[in-house]
Amino acid sequence: MANKKIAFIITKLELGGAQKSVLYSVKNINRPPFKTYLLCGKGGFLDKTAKKTIKSIFFIPDMVREISPVKDIKAFFQIRKRLKNIRPDIVHTNSSKAGILGRLAAASLIKRPKIVHTVHGFSFYEGQKTTQKYFYILAEKLLAGFTDRLVFVSREDMDNALRLKIAKASQCRLIRAGVEVKRRADFKDFDREAKLKELGLKPNARIILSTANLKPQKNPLDMIRAAAIVCRKEPRCVYLYTGTGPLKKAAAKLIARYKLKNNFKLLGHRKDIEQLLAVSELFSLSSLWEGLPMALAEALFMNVPAICYDSGGVKEILKDGQNGFLIKRGDYKALAQGHIKALKRKDFSFKEEDLEDFDIKNMINRQRELYLNLGGRR
Questions:
Q1: Which of 161, 200, 227, 301 shows the greatest Cβ crowding within 10 Å of its Cβ?
Q2: Are residues 52 and 121 in the same domain?
Q3: 113 and 246, same domain (yes or no)
Q4: Domain residues for 200?
């Protein structure tokens, strides 16, 4: 019996949770009865890693994150041509742009594959301009019309999809975006002082880590505003912010304005997140909207308390008062107070049963089950 072909499509292999999740799926589902392929745009931070570990990877020259009518049309035909050659049984899209172009290209094929799309977080959210919000909702409804299964990483997004009639219950599946589990015990021989020295920090530094990107969704400027309040009360606090993005200059200016040069470090893309967690007292996110951030799951597996805005699926894993604090979205002063309160507290608890759904092995098993039950091309 021939293997069932699955073509994964994602806009760009940036250093983010969705991208790492897709790469893990492509590599670990690629065994009988499945054969996997990956289609993505060029220029991502993880391109080199992907090329080394994935044989069937195809870069789509004109697939870019930004809206570009000319490039988007070209990318549609490039994806369609590649899918026509692969003849997949299933096309599984991830991220907004790939979700649009990939689903349209797959649906246009004469021998149409089954279509799956993972929602890592909707583009609409509370507080957004009404016209913009309802444009995104309408677009999601139209695309769901020819999507066989919609996979959600957060229950809140799935509930919203049903409430807004974006999708039918029969289309929806909840499969958490998993992480490769690392625990605090794995770092019992870790040299904390050496890592701090590498980062240019003093041994008594109190580290608050934020693993995000410098883009509007992740809202890094609120983290800087909170840091300014915290560091006035606790000068030993140092905020480490990983990732990059369009708000890098604005973030640097705000850091300078608040005189946080020694207390707020923009680290750029990093591959040592587990080691950064191992030296951190707290983890924090100030996102305005989220699906379910894998970085948060990584922190909680490492027993690092988290203080985050209550955006999207964050509250499905972060239990207020138990393994951290939930803060009302957009209230950076309350975020700062949450950091101060958490730095004083020593009795946070991390229950295994609250985290087991976020083990990446569970994600792979659930995905394989989904594909087996989906059938082949129409």
A1: 227
A2: yes
A3: no
A4: 184-356
What is the band of 272 on the pLDDT scale with cuts at 50, 70, 90?
Answer: very high
Same structural domain, 156 and 193:
no
Same domain (yes/no): 332, 241: yes
144 and 194 part of one domain: no
Q: Can you give the three-state secondary structure of 143-186, one letter per residue?
A: HHCCCCEEEECCHHHHHHHHHCCCCCHHHEEECCCCECCCCHHH
pTM of the full structure? 0.87
CA distance 125 to 121: 9
Using the structure block, give the residue that is written with the tokens 């092995």: 361
Per-residue model confidence as pLDDT tens digits over 284-330:
999 998 888 999 999 999 999 999 999 988 999 999 999 999 999 99
235-239 mean pLDDT: 98
Which residues, listed in sequence order, are joined to residue 34 by a DSSP beta bridge?
A: 4
Q: Residue 337 sits in a domain of what CATH number?
A: 3.40.50.2000
Q: What is residue 378's predicted lDDT score, i.e. its pLDDT?
A: 57
- 356 confidence band (pLDDT: 50, 70, 90): confident
